[in-house]
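Thymocyte nuclear protein 1: structure tokens wanted.
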Amino acid sequence: MPWPSRKRDKGAIADKKEPDAKVAKTEEETPDKEEEEKSTKPPAGSSKSGWKNWKKTKESDSGGEESKITYCHWLLKSEPESRLEKGVDVKFSIDDLKAQPNQTTHWDGVRNYQARNFLRAMKLGQQAFFYHSNCKEPGVVGIVKIVKEAYPDHTQFDQKDPHYDSTSRKENPKWSMVDVQFVRMTKRFIPLSEIKAHHLAHKADGGPLKNMMLFTRQRLSIQPLTQEEFDFVLGLEEEKPH
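Answer:
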């Protein structure tokens, strides 16, 4: 029996609490081209902390300085409320994860090249925030860890699965998944609205959340986090909710 499908990336729905956010180009429009895959795929680092060798280059106003960003944690979005997709309920909350054998499952159904490449960059033992998305109040609810690195996502070959991809071949699969295991609930629910308030403040003063992908590429259901981003958000669980 297949595992429940995770929140897909293709045509992902923006969080309901973000009506004023700049709407990103829907991932349904992502070109299905080899060039797209090459342009978004970072090299897998050999370090356990992940992506040590990845260099993100951007042109600065002063003439093209290279900025190095190290990602070693993740944010995984999933929908805690029922929603039918091609007749299949894609709901999967953190409580659903806790109910799985050994509190472990595979994270399938990702159909966006950049998100897939993030999956492929994940390293054994790395931790991620479990984020409830597309619900009344989205936000971080818990922590999971990667217990199996990327391997072919079986749902791409299942014609009954809503994430079936007729263009993918078993000899050269397009899509990957990882296995994740529940670690713990956060000490309190950390809502998107609270994280956004810090992000806006940090954009002004140069704080750790200034470039957080949750706000620059909010439609991606798999997002990398720097150590500083992860530590700051995790530290919010110790504070009283605003």
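Residues 1-5, 17-66 have pLDDT under 50 and may be disordered. The longest strand covers residues 176-191.

Cheers.
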